[in-house]
Amino acid sequence: MRPTASAAAALGLLVGLTVSHWLLAHPRAGEQAAEPVATGEDLRLPPWSEGVPPWARSVRIPKGDQPLRHAPDGQAERRGSAAREARLPLFGARKGPGCGGPWLQVGAAAWVCSDATTYSGAAPILPSAKLITAAPDGLPFRYYFAGRDGSLAYHRIEEVDVGEPAMTLEPGFAVAVVEERNLGRERYGRTNRGLWVPMRDLGPARSFHFEGSEVTDTPNGVVPFAWVVEDDALLYERRGQLFAPTASRASRFDRVGFLEEANVFGARYVRIDDRHWIRHKQLAHPTLLPPPEESEIAHGARWIDIELESQTLVAYEGERPVFATIVSTGKGKTKGHPFETPKGVHRIWVKLLATTMDNLENENANRYWRIEDVPYVQFFHKGVGLHAAFWHRSFGHVRSHGCVNLAPRDAARLFAWTGPEIPAGWTAALPTAYDRGTIVRVR
Hints:
Strand order of the largest sheet: 2-3-33-29-30-31-32
Radius of gyration: 25 Å
Shape: globular
Structural class: mainly beta
Distance between the termini: 19 Å
Strand content: 35-45%
Helix content: under 10%
């Protein structure tokens, strides 16, 4: 799936600050404090921080996805974006173009214009704080789909069903609901975008708890497990050169052993335990290849390998595979196809906790769709990236519009594992010289 044009334009907002750098710059951040009001003696700012109130200890962000700049200049490259109501650490202040007041340093090479913030005497957010806490199924929000009749969304709950709607939800459009309220006899939900929708028009997305597996051993250079990717897979017993069906079956998403292969009369079988075999075409099994020739990989850096043929992903630390799972990549099989997942060696160029994806600007679309707050997005080639998918369960098969779809728990895991890291209180991050984007190879 690809981002909306507005989301793609906003992707320049973004980049990460590692926790270690944060702690070095602000050693008191790990202390638990009940939002004290600081005194002038508490503030340890550089001498160029004139004009900052002596009691200021943090920077409050009133507006969501507030852009952060790489330098105190309105024309500087984007560094990241901050969450609404986050209190970021205050390291210094400096006058610069593009801001009526001083630019405030809130991280390593991360600056925000004071015109869009307020000073706070409360302690800054702890570096270990989480902006969102995922449910057991890995999703950060509760997602709902508009029913067959669609729905309407409103700015205020009092306007629902009686006022002017702010947005039309076509059938199948998805929203993230963060609050529910009763008004009269009706129940309404507030989306993460701040609009109210009648809950009677929405159906919940089903939870899906699948997740990949850690790789602890690769005997003879082979990942010793695979996943069943058919709903009902017949198991066989080997009798000489023949394979006889048994009464046993395997189900979709079962993890099975990958112990031995045999090719009989053009059909490939895989032994999954001491007795049973299964047809190879009913499995998704990752293969291992040498890493790209990147110096950082030779020194143990983390990177990701995506194999289109098997629809699998393997995460590595240097040359050692550490995690594997199944994915759904783009339906486009030819180079330049609009739904292609482009082959090659790429780098994650931006990470977003969530973004909206749709095809509403495609005038030739047979069907329009829109999914708000797609979580754990990591773009590595223009608008193509890794992200969670909660609207299908086709993992192990080609499905997407170009992106690499992951089960939500896998997407959350990889989002936390890759670089650049997103600091506490940030909603997006771009790479830096010291926290480069993780390498992603598609083959």
